[in-house]
Design goal:
alpha/beta, six-stranded mixed β-sheet, 12 helices, 25% helix
């Protein structure tokens, strides 16, 4: 009869930048499995973005069970922090303060998983407390070949992270399969199998897989690992080397003044969208990962966004705390990043009196100008501009209309707002409209948006 291993199973969740690790972790935390899970979160940049998004989804969240490892890569520069965190959890478990069912370590996308796995086998305290259950690697089907094919010259001994993460996996989750064709998927799977013949591959979208495909899988095999990596347990092996051309830039409004590269204040939503679009179009190939939590002017909720190369996703999420500071945090990871240019771009998006005045100066119509507004397909109504940069509660978060217009034909109470300053929405009064100014075509009251 085999003995039951009472140690806490530990899963290393790895995958290149933007593969979907944090999304998978949030799925695990919100699933109805009843497990008590300790999370160790690692981010490549100096500013933490994902920790708050993970913590809010945890059903077993306290300062001890949700653990964050900051500022660096967990496989090299902050590996000692990982050891200290695991030793602390071991001590609390031994004292009966906590009773964990699992540990999940989400590595940075730039991490080599082998040194992280080694941590569970070379430290006696950790080895008695936890067993390495498996390395689960997420693969971004849309971008994996780009990273595997990257032939940028590197120094001797520099690890190819994307390849190392696949080669060392006990399970491979081929994510974002909806973004590529079936023939692409078949080609990618053959390539992954050539790199790792033993790891099962499961296709998924949005990192949605059952918890039993990730936790307690009994996937790690030490004998197999030693056969392929004889120096795996050698504590004197050379440390991991990373490609020095890949760096991170962090912008944090909450940083101390002498460390803060950006100014404080809420951001103009239109300016933010224009800036991010410009970054993606001009630097998307080298911008591996971008993520942030932004304080947008005229929005009560946080704007949370992330991108992988040129694929962007962003939405307004939970509300800011009523008595808390509203401060933006952003992280960029990629090649050839210009920290000063990124900080300057951020500062140009601040909603300041000067930036608002500049936007007003660029508008085509002044307050008091007679205009025509599109109020339906092919339907125009004359009116007068009564305000610039108009905002009212019914508008979407962050939106400010260039114009508020009073329509001549609808009585003294009817105002509308123009969402864009373009001829398709608002234009000069056409000569043919002069004789129709008293034609009662619109019967609505109250402030409305133009079509």
């Amino acid at each position: 009869m085999s003995m039951v291993d009472g140690r806490v199973p530990a899963t290393i969740l790895t995958g290149f930048l933007g593969s979907g690790k944090t999304t998978l972790l949030n799925h695990i935390l919100t699933a109805s499995h009843g497990k008590k899970i300790a999370i160790i979160e690692n981010e490549f940049g100096d500013v933490a973005i994902d920790d708050a998004l993970i913590a809010k989804n945890s059903k077993y969240a306290s300062d001890e069970e949700i653990v964050e490892v900051l500022n660096g890569c967990i496989c090299c520069t902050v590996r000692s922090d990982l050891i200290a965190v695991l030793q602390k959890l071991a001590a609390r478990q031994a004292a009966g303060e906590i009773c964990l069912d699992a540990i999940v370590i989400e590595t940075t996308g730039m991490a080599d998983p082998a040194p992280v796995a080694q941590t569970f086998l070379v430290d006696e305290t950790i080895r008695m407390f936890a067993r390495l259950d498996g390395i689960v690697t997420l693969v971004d089907a849309k971008h994996i070949e780009q990273h595997l094919d990257d032939d940028t010259p590197t120094a001797e001994g520099v690890v190819k992270e994307a390849a190392a993460q696949v080669a060392f996996a006990d399970r491979i989750l081929l994510n974002k399969v909806d973004l590529v064709s079936e023939s692409d998927l078949e080609r990618i799977e053959l390539r992954l199998q050539a790199m790792n013949k033993l790891a099962p591959i499961q296709r998924c979208q949005h990192s949605e897989v059952s918890v039993d495909r990730v936790l307690n899988i009994h996937g790690f095999d030490l004998d197999r690992t030693l056969a392929s990596m004889p120096d795996f347990l050698n504590p004197n092996a050379l440390p991991t080397k990373h490609n020095e051309s890949v760096t991170s830039v962090s912008l944090d409004q909450s940083a101390a003044r002498h460390l803060r590269a950006v100014d404080k204040g809420a951001l103009d939503f239109d300016a933010v969208k224009e800036w991010i679009n410009q970054l993606l179009s001009s630097q998307g190939a080298d911008l591996f990962r971008m993520k942030g939590v932004l304080s947008i002017a005229h929005a009560e909720c946080k704007f949370v966004y992330h991108s992988v190369h040129m694929i962007f996703n962003g939405h307004f999420d939970e509300q800011w705390a009523v008595d808390g500071l509203r401060e933006s945090k952003l992280v960029f990871i990629g090649k050839n990043l210009d920290a000063k240019a990124l900080a300057d771009g951020f500062n140009s998006c601040l909603a300041t009196p000067e930036s608002i005045a500049k936007k007003i100066k660029a508008l085509r119509f002044a307050v008091g100008d007679e205009v025509e507004c599109c109020v339906g397909p092919g339907e125009w109504s004359p009116g007068k501009v009564v305000a610039h940069m108009h905002r009212e509660p019914a508008m979407p978060p962050g939106m400010v209309a260039p114009y508020q217009v009073h329509l001549d034909e609808s009585g003294p109470e009817h105002f509308i707002w123009a969402p864009y300053d373009c001829d398709e929405v608002i234009r000069k009064v056409q000569p043919a409209a002069a004789g129709r100014r008293n034609s009662p075509r619109i019967k609505k009251t109250g402030s409305q948006r133009m079509s």
